[in-house]
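Q: Sequence in, structure out?
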Amino acid sequence: MLTIRDYDRRLVAGREESHEDRATLWDIVRTPDAQQTVAFIPETQETKSYGDLEHDALTWAREWWVQGVRPGDVVGAQLPNIWDFICSHVALARIGAVIAPIHTPYSEKEREELLTLVGARGWIENERQGPRLRIMNHGAMDSREFPQDPDVAVNDPLAIFFTSGTHSLKPKSCLHSHGALLGNAEILACHAGIEKNDRIISASPFTHLFGILALHVSFVTGVPQVLLNRFHPQKFVTACRDAGVTVAYMVPTHIRDTLHYLQENPADAKGLVLREVRVAGATLPPDMVSGIEDHFHAHTVNHWGMSELGAGLTTHWTDSSEIPTRSIGRPLPGSELAIVKEDGQPARFGETGELWFRGPSLFYGYFGNLEATDESLERDEDGRYWFKTGDLAKWGSGGVVEYAGRVKDLIVRGGMKISAIEVESAILEMPGVRQAALIAEPNERLGELGCLVMATEAGTHYRLRDILSYLESRHMAKFKWPERLVVWESLPTTATGKIAKTKVRSQLFEESQVKSPEKCLKATICSKRGGMPV
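A: Exactly. Output:
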């Protein structure tokens, strides 16, 4: 039977691999100094060492081996940013298995669909006694004893990250090696100037590639990671202050909420020693950057990346404060990018085109989907592969790249990506719904919200609460639900009958400004929903 490791070899035929002298995750964890701190847990004031990590990870690796996990098996992990996630990640790496992080807001049904997609052996969930492995695939298992030395190489797979789905209903699974992920963290740490006396915190979940990047930066530098199991502004500020955090990884929603908290509680900022806030977002609003300077007294570094390539571009802490307000930065050392117009020609200064990327952090491919892998790659005249990101960009002054939107139809709400087609397809199954389009609506706090524009049959009437109840019955994660409903008699279409989303978007936002009753032929129903996870 073809394992994921064999499949990995097929995907990388003719592709660049990581240097063999790079370390695997288990190599890095087995540091000569077992007393060195790897993690600090603010809630319990507990400090964890690399010796603790090696012991716990090895204990769980042996236990999971008995349960049937073998090299090449995929195992999901639906865990928050806790010690158990770190140990599970390392334990699976010790076996040679592949971790597949699952966002904690995902429902049981969504988790099962993702794990089935990659033929996972099972998944790990959080329990009081520690992480528990639940087997869902009892397939063939060899009778080998647990190996004394791991049979894992730097170019073997380490993790799978799921996309949110783009032009298809199904998400894709991005396969990464030890060398790609840890090498990306090494290059970023060197570029950022991370030092031994730094301490890192990630408000972004480790189930996001941006969050696990922060964890990997800790591993490759030996800098402690401060664990925040659930984001809350006060908890975040307290953890940063008590643990002496110097570098924070955040998405814009986290920053908005924290700045709002500090505006109301300025005394809590005393004692903060943050020097750098690294943000995963598009172009950042000037007031956010100035807020970071005023309340955190820190530099802002903007990141651009994807599940397929990790951190691709960043600004730098030495840049002026206006750079991250108009740019996603420059490619990290060793990586290259091109901006290509629709006619296939390189974009000149100021021209918009699709962002293409190549570099050592590039994924091996979409596991189980060679066709999608081939479609995403373009080979140039020199035989080099470029990844077509689906994001639009242009060259800006000073050699930086300016973000210009997405070709792919995604909504980014509080750092979580929502596939519009997934939500639309569900809505279209409701009785009497003729057309549906989920549109990204700008929001100061969350970045974007989903606004559902739909048309129904005569005599069919839905309110927003009806839509949300239906999506809940389908076990769809709450962060994917639309926040606003607009009902029209019909949505504009293209010549082929497809919904013309550009026209929908333009008309929707024009109505938001002028409230034109002629264009909004039916009622616009608005509602705010509270209590959703960020």
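Residues 4-395 form a domain with the Rossmann fold fold (CATH 3.40.50.12780).
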